[in-house]
Structures are given as C-alpha cells and as structure tokens.
Write a structure and sequence with these properties.
Layout lengths: L52 E9 L2 E8 L8 E9 L2 H9 L10 E2 L3 E9 L11 E4 L2 E2 L5 H4 L10 E2 L7 E4 L1 H7 E3 L6 H4 L2 H14 L6 E5 L3 H12 L3 E6 L2 H9 L5 E4 L6 H8 L6 E6 L4 H10 E9 L13 H6 L3 E3 L6 H13 L8 E6 L3 H9 L5 E5 L1 H8 L10 E2 L1
Parallel strand pairs: 11-12, 11-14, 12-13, 14-15, 15-16, 17-18
Antiparallel strand pairs: 1-2, 1-4, 3-5, 3-9, 3-18, 5-6, 6-10, 7-8, 17-19
Length: about 425
C-alpha cells in the first residue's frame, strides 16, 4: 500500500497531498492569486511603515534572555524583511535557553527563536519572487547546493548550511539563500499559526520517511512533546498501529485526540519494557519501529529494549553533548537491529509539510495550548519546561493586544487554547 505521508526523492508527491507544480527545491509555490511577482527591488529597499527600532528577544547566556529595543535590520541584496505574525516555542529553543548552543547561539548576544510566519514588508535588491504584503513561512536553514553532502542528496548535512535565528522579534531579516530555497508563500486559507508548524513538521516527515512505516506496522513512540505527537499522527496517517508512552496528562490527552494513537500508556512510574511488549505486540516480540522522541540516555536504551528482531529504532531525540549509552552489541548484530538518527529537514520536506497543512490532511494547531505576547517569552518557555503547555504561540505585543482585546490598552495575559 502506498504511504500517505512519505515520498521518495524522485517520486511525485504523495496521494491526497498535491504539491504545487512549482514547489521544487529552490522555488516557492505561487499564491492563489496567480503568483504575480514584483519588479526587482531597488538597491535601497523601501521601509515604508517600518519603525527604525524593534522589540527583540536576545540570548545573552544560558538562562539569560532579554526583551530589548534594537535597530530594525534592513534587507541586503536577495534578502527579505518580514514582520513576524506568529512564532512558536520549540524544544530546541528550550534546550538552548538552558544550555546555550555552539552553532545557533555562538555570537552573543544572539537573536532567538526559529519557527515563524510573517508578512513581507521590505525587499532587498534583486528579489522579484515576492511582493510586499504577502504572507510567508520561513524555514530556519537552507543548504548551499554545492558541497559533498548536497551532491549526495543529503542537504540536511550541508557543510555550509545557512542558519536563521531571530523569530522572537517584531521583524526578521531573511538571508538570501533562505529566501531563494526555503521561504514559501502561504495560501490564503492557511493560518499563520498552522504554517508556523512547517519547520517542525518537515523534520518529522523526514524522520517518518526514513522509518519506512507502512500499513499494519506496530510503531512505538517514546515521548509525547510536540515532536512525538506529530510523529505519532504521521505514523497513523501511514496506517500503522501506534502506541505512545508519556507521563504528562495534558500530552497524553493530545496523543488520544490529536495523534489518534491506538494506545496511550502512562509511564509516570517508569518504563517496563517487557510488560509493554507483552501487552501490545504478538507474543511479546517487540515493535517493528520504535521512535525515541525524548532525548535522554535511558529512553534511548528503552527504545532498543522494545524493538523486535529485524526492527528499526529511530533515535530522534537529541541528547546533551557528550552523552553516551551502552549497547548490547550481540543483540544489535544477531537480531539485525537497524539504528537511525535523523537530523533536520530539507527543502523538499518543508514543501511537503506546507502541502499537507494546505490540503487539510493534517491540522497541527491543536498542539498550541497557549498564546502569549512576545514580551512573555520567558514565561512561555517556563510553561513548556514544566509541562503546562505543549506549544505556545507568541505574538508581537501590539498584535496580541489587537487580536484578543477590543477595549483599548490593557495588560496582556496568556490566552489558552
């Protein structure tokens, strides 16, 4: 049976998820109005209606982020400036807030956040594929297309991967390569919040694709944060029988209502691998595929303990740098266990993610449990860390107030649901 959510590198888009004919790597889908393009921008970009300063969240050191006024950037040749309409919290941002990040946050103070949608407000010289006022989603990276890995169809491992941070701000300058390869125009009926999921969904699509999940396979998901829940939903769309393990009551409920898992197991008191295999696999042999979406050594080892002979373990959750685990090499060899550890996304998967959302095949917005103004980003991260929220949608403060309050200025507060 053909898969609903996976596709080969050369195959056409999956059934029920028609990609726009122009949505190949390096091009953006045309808008519903026909994709009219603007004339190439002049050397000096017009910044009409854009304030000279903006609010931005800056990372200074682990545990120290600040909401500050900084100069609004101007787009250079090939670049865009977008007014951020929605940004989402992410587990990577939470880890980076706690530990720092040697790649994403190496020049301090650093812009912060990477999942967002926005409105084009200024065009750099030579940009003729977008118009002022268009809504776009911006992925957080773009490959060079010229290195060894790009030439071997592994653009996610590109030696010169262009990275983008700074979604937690009123405006975001998008680098030229990301404008060219990983900035997509949004269809009119796709919301800002749904489109902001394109980046995490694209990562999950690639992870599921590499698992080769087909109808009837038994799949175990360890961890039910946003990534685990997206993985579970994608596995279900592929026809798998899905069991998820989690501790948090809110997330277990979403595993049922959003992911539509076949079984949701409370592991608050620990993971009993043998009992879980006995309860959910024939004769307790183990699962065809186990996806670890926590990023802890003990859950990596639990994943290995619950996969069947000849099965596959997807070590998707990233552990802290320097972490190691013990492996039973005899079992790994003689039981033919396949280990994979997918990292990041590709332009193809970003387009696939937007196509799934636009087609209505997957609506990720139930994972947004809270909405907050950008100035409350610290509390938003705390809510996620404490298990009180799954995803928090962050609005620039003025937009938050205009969206949720109609009776003049007042102190913004969190909005649930």
């Amino acid at each position: 049976m053909s898969s609903l959510v996976t596709s080969s590198h050369t195959a056409t888009p999956t059934p029920n998820v028609p990609l726009h004919p122009a949505a190949s790597q390096g091009s953006a889908p045309a808008s519903a109005s026909g994709g009219a393009t603007a004339m190439a921008a002049s050397a000096a970009p017009t910044m009409t209606g854009v304030a000279p300063t903006m609010k931005s969240v800056l990372f200074y050191q682990p545990g120290d982020i600040r909401y500050e006024d900084i100069p609004t950037p101007k787009p250079g040749p090939g670049e865009l400036l977008i007014r951020v309409r929605r940004a989402l919290t992410c587990g990577t941002d939470l880890k980076a807030f706690r530990r720092g990040h040697p790649v994403l946050l190496k020049n301090l103070p650093s812009p912060f956040g990477h999942e967002c949608t926005g409105e084009v407000v200024a065009l750099g010289q030579g940009v003729d594929r977008f118009e002022l006022g268009e809504r776009v989603m911006v992925a957080n990276s773009a490959p060079c297309g010229d290195c060894f890995y790009c030439h071997h169809d592994q653009p996610n491992l590109c030696d010169q991967l262009d990275l983008l941070n700074g979604a937690y701000a009123e405006y975001l300058k998008v680098p030229a390569r990301i404008v060219e390869k990983n900035t997509l125009r949004l269809p009119p009926d796709v919301s800002d919040e749904a489109a902001a999921f394109c980046e995490p969904l694209s990562v999950c699509l690639r992870g599921i694709e590499l698992c080769q999940i087909s109808a009837g396979k038994r799949v175990l998901i360890i961890g039910i944060g946003a990534i685990g829940l997206l993985m579970a939903r994608l596995a279900k769309l592929n026809g798998a029988q899905v069991v998820v393990l989690g501790r948090n009551a809110l997330k277990r409920e979403l595993a049922d209502t959003f992911a539509q898992a076949d079984a949701v197991v409370d592991v608050s008191s620990g993971i009993d691998a043998e009992a879980i295999k006995a309860a959910y696999t024939p004769e307790g042999i183990g699962f065809d595929v186990v996806i670890e979406a926590v990023g802890q050594p003990h859950t990596w080892q639990a994943a290995l303990a619950m996969v069947r002979r000849g099965g596959l373990v997807n070590c998707f959750g990233g552990c802290e740098s320097g972490t190691s685990i013990e492996l039973d090499t005899r079992r790994l060899h003689y039981d033919e266990i396949t280990l994979i550890s997918p990292f990041h996304h590709t332009p193809r998967h970003v387009r696939h993610a937007l196509a799934m959302i636009a087609s209505g095949q997957l609506d990720p917005t139930p994972l947004i449990t809270h909405r907050r103004p950008l100035s409350q980003v610290r509390q938003a991260l705390r809510d996620v860390a404490e298990g009180q929220a799954v995803k928090v949608a962050l609005y620039p403060d003025a937009l938050f107030e205009a969206t949720f309050f109609d009776e003049g200025p007042q102190q913004p507060a969190a909005v649930e649901g």
